[in-house]
Predict the structure.
Amino acid sequence: MQTSFSWRATKPLRDLGGLYHKYIKKCSRMDLLPIHELELMTRNNKVVWVSRGGDPQFLLTPINPAVLRQGGWFSLEYDFSATQAVDQCLYIDYGDGFQADIVWARHVEKSGHQSLVIYLPMGTQALRLDPMTRPGEFRLEDPVLKKIETPQIPHPWSGLDGYLKCCEGCEFTLAAAQQLERRLEGEFHWRSHGTDPAFVVRHRRGRVIEPGWCRIEFVLSGEYQHQVAKLYIDHGEGFSETHAYPIPFQSGKLATRVIQLERSIVNIRFDPWEREGSFRLERLCIDNVDAEEAWDAIAGRLVETAPEYMDLKKAEVLAGVGRSAPETDEGDGTAKKAELADAEDDAARETRLLEGYAETFIVNEAELSYQKWIDEVEVNGLPSSETIRSYLEGLESPALISVLVPVYNTDETLLKACIDSVIAQSYPHWELCLVDDASPSPHVEKVLRHYASKDKRVKIHFRPDNGHISKTTNDALSMATGDYLALLDHDDELARDALYFIAKELEKNPDAQLIYSDEDKIDVQGMRCEPHFKPDWNIDLLYSQNYVSHLGVYRRSLIEKIGGFRVGVEGSQDYDLVLRCIPHLTAGSISHVPRVLYHWRAIEGSTALAEEGKDYTTSAGVKALKDHIEGIADGRAIVEQGIVGNTYRVRWPIPEPAPLVSMLIPTRDKKDVTELAVRSILEKSRYTDYEIILLDNGSVEPETHEFFEKIQAEDSRVSVLRYDHPFNYSAINNFGAEHAKGSIIGLVNNDVEVINGDWLREMVSHACREDVGCVGAKLYYGNDTIQHAGVIVGLGGVAGHSHKHFPRESGGYFNRLKVVQSVSAVTAACLLVRKSVYEEVGGLNEQDLKVAFNDVDFCLKVLDAGYRNIWTPYAELYHHESISRGAEDNPEKVARFNTEIDYMQKAWGKIIEHDPSYSPCLTRSREDFSIGGR
């Protein structure tokens, strides 16, 4: 297909002479020039066009070229007649030449006046009209291009017109380099087909970007709300990450960044994101700016997004930046020392500012993974308007939810966003109780009164004096008339459907007294991050941290029964509230909604931004927990701050006399391994009321038997029992349990090594709690990475270890590696359980689980019997895993392992599908608490 016209192509027109010019006179608004497979002829003294092939082409150029350059909406009108219906195409050249997919196609059924409404971007070069797609005769007269008002269209960005409108905002042409396809059917014009889509970028008029400061701006709208684009600069060495500039963006919002170019540019590449999906690029501009403008942009972003600069003004950030180098003294030719020192300080400051500025554009993989989860999982799980409407129409007596918001000196923008998030709720049966705690800023009262005047569901009250958060929330409670209370901080936001999902849960569980949801944070750039996907009710985790937090919804009668919020625990008043509710709750009256319904505002100084943000909250939390524990442990338990801020530790009492622990250690040869385990227990354990029973399963090495005799002679607490049968881990331990003298059974591998001396006392203290079953320890590989931090049922098909291979010092997912918590199962490499519980559930399964999963099965039987299984980080041991047994690598072992998997899936299918100590929103294929799906 030809895309240009030549002198040769117009020869037939010149040969017609006056006849041609007479015809052109009729086309007073546009020139109609044939460029391919067209010939002008006369029939019965009338001018007709003849198509000589299947690709006839006209070039349309307005007599006044400025018409095209101004851009906008136009109507292309002309008279057309042919002997039968034809298909016509109009192409546009806006700097890239005519392209096959940039076309308006239309089917013309009848002869007569034709009109085609089109959008032409500023700078359009030419139009090409293909009048038909076959040989034949036709007449085409009086082509006119009329500027018109913006037409009424369903979506301003839809189709080819929308694409061309986007082109108008781009000074650069975008050539799809890889994994990109242009699609012009809907509002998004490009589709990426991989994780590395890329455009090659060139200026339409060949303008060169000079070395120096440069600003990049773009607006990209797509299927995903928050992503990261990347601009690559080639200075002659090709594209590389050395000269790659990430730019986080929000769909439909202007994104900008300044960079400093040291050399000339050879090529530019623009990667819109790193995923599959559809999008449109509404604007792209890359241009030089002066140094003053660049530094102003740098300072502005630092003040807005970098915590260390947020309390400064731009001028303070830039103090000293941009000074000229000191002049030399005329006398000795050296600079004044003071000026030189200042210059060096300024240079260092500039470097530090540039590094800080660059860091604000870095988005970690976890945040990107969460954005992907929002786009692909959360959005698809939200109810449609029709679903909500149908649900509301079916409610006979909808629950009224009172949202309590204590307010104090809140930033005006954040306060409005908070209130707007309630007003925007898809569930309309709510009331908003706002109480101002004597804020000194006058805008607070103005904002509250404004919203109260707009919506009768908004109630406001102004305290005459400052009483702090507990008193202020109690004032809000006194205003509430709803059966349920939702707690909202004055600078946070509710998800749009938060109250809808709460109402749905109340419908499902009308006896619910407490409902809590998952939550996330909104960073200083407005990006959702750090989702907290929570477990179902987990009282031991609650004793370690306030994981319930937000969104918390309580039955009003329950809160009134306990006397509302308690004064004196400000900073942890919500934690104190839920702890005081516990005596009045049953497992069936607590519901967890595994959806992100609450967005914390992560601002400087807030608990959401950093655990160190409010040190007083930990002290208040310790007091709240201490008061609660005192009522259930006869004052013998000790409550103290946990390993990290806003976490807690309860040291549970041990009965008197202290119970005897019978540690069962199956072994076979490998004397060095077993001796290390036994001696580390004997030498390091401060808790001394125990016996060690070595269960010898066929040891044949003389040195092993020598060790058995020696260790029994050294310490009377060690004994050896022979078990001369084929290896069956379950049977060996059941045999040992029959001979155990202690009231507590310890299942211990022969390849562990004690680290901290309090490990056994810690585990015994939990095992003695009457509602606790199994207790597990924190185990490390020899390289100080996590081997065991509790077992998550369902990982990998049956079960996997929490946080496997995480560094020893890591806090894990929301500090789960640092706190005591309930889990569904723990490994028998180091497990304590009361002998009565062991016998109650029938011990380990000797028949179906001889080697694998017997510990998981045992824990699930204990769980099924009504006990809780506990994991504690305060009992630490090394686990030199499976050194003495060998690999599962021969056909017989593989077959046995597969049989054990089948048994577990049949016996425990329900909990494998959903482990209550884990979230359905987290991965089921990895052991790292990463985001998965639902």
Notes: The two ends are 51 Å apart (CA to CA). Confidence is low (pLDDT under 50) at residues 1-14, 16-28. The longest strand covers residues 136-147. The first helix runs from residue 11 to 16.
